[in-house]
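Exercise 7b. Backbone tokens:
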């Protein structure tokens, strides 16, 4: 193990706290700085995650100049980016970016340019890539055993109001960008480069809720250059207190079924089937990994010169292109969506 890596956290809400807690569990890493809009919320995060040595800043650039950081965790709502990612990359600082990395393609492209030009390591918070069943199907795909990927079907269902920024279309761009995007990322992870996407979005059961201007129902279709296709639905009108993000993948000689009840008391699971040569083999996985810890360990391993990160910043851009195309294609009320090419 090399020298201790110094982490900074930008944004002191739910994800700042989630990542901060886990960084404290990783050997050879220290949370050296926290940046918040108010000193009080920065101090509160420092206490909650017991980062006793962390210096709290209210100015991001001052943190970059003074804290001698190796990496920054950017845990901001998607509308809040003001070039912080680009400025950190210019200084050679590695970046962990919560998804969606932005709410528009131009900002995401600017982040990709800066990070790739600087050659720093980046990881986007697409933690679902670290599930056991996902790793197993990827292994079968990489070895050629699974055969050609053909179809992805997924959903993200819940029922919540979220914070004020979350339910405001102008600030978050909706459930599609905030939640269902995780499922679109899984489709891209398995099926490859998307060539076009279209879909429908509607607010069906929150029209009378003050401040709720995002969609609560969506249905998207994605086409891939290799001919494969994905169908993904989102709902914020489903069962309260249940967060269901599940999916199925079909390859020529293998399938993955990730199943979730959305009830935190019941463990999620994955089933992988392999078939061919007259026999069927079944593997079951209990999905009990701490995925937020797994994605950070992968990021830090890459910083230390290990394998490349599983969800680099370019992945963040690709997913935004897809959900943006779905939102744009749905803008004609009452009409069927028109497919948007992605290049
Ligand atoms: N990967 C996951 O499972 C997961 C789960 C939840 C949220 N997220 C993502 O993480 C991001 C943050 O979500 P959250 O739940 O932590 O939100 P949050 O509201 O709990 O925290 C956001 C933080 O950003 C700060 N902030 C807001 N606007 C700002 C601005 N203009 N300038 C500087 N700071 C600002 C707030 O003060 C707060 O500290 C979102 O993009 C969300 O989609 C990811």
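Sequence design result:
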């Amino acid at each position: 193990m090399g020298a201790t890596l110094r982490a900074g956290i930008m944004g002191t809400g739910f994800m700042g706290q989630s990542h901060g807690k886990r960084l404290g569990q990783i050997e050879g890493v220290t949370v050296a700085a926290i940046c918040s809009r108010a000193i009080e919320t920065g101090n509160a995060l420092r206490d909650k995650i017991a980062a006793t040595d962390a210096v709290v800043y209210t100015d991001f650039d001052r943190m970059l100049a003074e804290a001698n950081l190796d990496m920054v965790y950017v845990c901001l709502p998607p509308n809040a980016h003001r070039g912080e990612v680009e400025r950190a990359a210019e200084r050679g600082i590695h970046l962990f970016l919560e998804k969606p990395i932005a709410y528009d393609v131009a900002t995401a492209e600017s982040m990709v340019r800066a990070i790739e030009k600087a050659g720093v390591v980046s990881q986007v918070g697409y933690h679902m890539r670290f599930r056991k069943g996902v790793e197993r199907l990827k292994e079968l795909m990489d070895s050629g055993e699974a055969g050609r990927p053909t179809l992805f079907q997924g959903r993200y269902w819940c029922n919540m109001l979220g914070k004020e920024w979350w339910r405001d279309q102008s600030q978050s761009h909706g459930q599609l960008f905030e939640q269902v995007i995780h499922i679109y990322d899984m489709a891209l992870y398995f099926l490859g480069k998307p060539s076009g996407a279209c879909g429908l979005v509607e607010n069906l059961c929150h029209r009378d809720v003050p401040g709720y201007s995002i969609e609560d129902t969506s249905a998207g279709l994605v086409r891939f250059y290799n001919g494969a296709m994905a169908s993904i639905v989102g709902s914020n009108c489903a069962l309260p207190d249940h967060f269901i993000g599940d999916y199925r993948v079909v390859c020529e000689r293998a399938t993955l079924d990730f199943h979730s009840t959305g009830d935190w008391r019941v463990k999620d699971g994955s089933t992988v089937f392999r078939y061919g040569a007259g026999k069927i083999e079944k593997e079951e996985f209990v999905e009990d990994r701490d995925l937020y810890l797994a994605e950070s360990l992968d990021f830090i391993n890459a910083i230390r010169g290990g394998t490349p990160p599983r969800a680099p910043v370019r992945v963040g851009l690709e997913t935004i292109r897809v959900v943006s195309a779905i939102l744009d294609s749905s803008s004609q009320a009452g009409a069927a969506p028109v497919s948007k090419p992605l290049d």
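Instructor comment: The longest helix spans residues 175-191. Residues 11-16, 36-37, 41, 75-78, 80, 98-100, 125, 127, 163, 178 surround nicotinamide-adenine-dinucleotide (CB under 6 Å).
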